[in-house]
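Board notes (copied after class):
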Amino acid sequence: MSLQYLQEVVVASADVAAAARFHREAFDLEVLEEVDGSVLLGVPGAPAGRLRLVPAQGSPADETSPAVWDLGARLLGIYSRDLDATAAAMARAGGAPRRPVTYPYGEASLSELVGRGPDGVWWTIPLAVTGAHRPSAAYDADAGRRHSELHTAVLVVADHDAAVAFFEAAGFSTLFDGAMSGAPFDELVGMPADAALRLAFMVGPQHQPARLEIMSFTGVPTRDRSADPVGIRRLVLVADDPAATREALVAVGAEELGDGVLRGPVGVEIEIVADGAR
């Protein structure tokens, strides 16, 4: 029994048409489906790592944009072969990219930019280095394209260890879990100089996209924005045995919402499906 990969992320949007335009122009995602006011975006030939925009039910009580470190399902990740070009495309499309930064990551280094898009969703965009990046069906199908399918979704949590244990109980494994602090990370996400972040990178057995990251912060005030009506609301995860995986997650504290949907860390909805079910 194991989670395999993240098939789809559902984002509640204040303006679905405007958000779809942003993701097409900034990240070269294509419209795959339009149903009942929702738009499914992705990369043709990539069966997972997709983004579904649905109309938000209401407006957030706090009209300010969430910070990267505010609690909730906070970021999405996508690979880019040209970070400067991606930053320029994000800015033209109406986003707010920060400048790319290179920093140590485990025993190697990673170049990345972080930026804000619509609906309080932040983006983490690592440089795709040929032969070194995680698996990507989008790049396999078209080695010349700039952007991959969704690479990760990121939950910003208060209890880091509990969130990691939650997904490990369903079969994800943790490839990296470590603290990051200092000038490169301050610049990357805009956090104060005395703050630090901790990041866990989690994958299924084949490391297929999209994957999952758990992030937590110290030394910076966080707000709980997990109940905002706009932003990342649901993760659609593929499992080899959906029923057993749901049971495993309920056993470690997931709340059953009905129709097979669970509520997990920081309130994110979790839908578990079989491969090829959607």
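Comment from the instructor: DSSP finds six helices and 17 strands in the chain. The CA atoms of residues 172 and 179 lie 20 Å apart.
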